[in-house]
Amino acid sequence: MAEPDDLRNYWPRIIVCLIIGIVGLATVPFTGTRYGDFPEMCALMVGVLPLLYLALFVILNLNRRLSDLERRR
What we know:
Layout: H1 11-26, H2 28-35, H3 37-72
Helix pairs in contact: 1-3, 2-3
């Protein structure tokens, strides 16, 4: 079992979020032209929210990763 501070365990989460984000953003032009603005907004949210989650995750864990690098020196 890996330690909770081991960031290598987050690769599956990152890959799944990227796949969901890319598919969600790819569907935006198709849903907006046929069905109106609300499904387009929902597809945009499905595409953008996983990417925002990853950005926040990286920002919040940056300090922990930098402190680990400083301890290795």
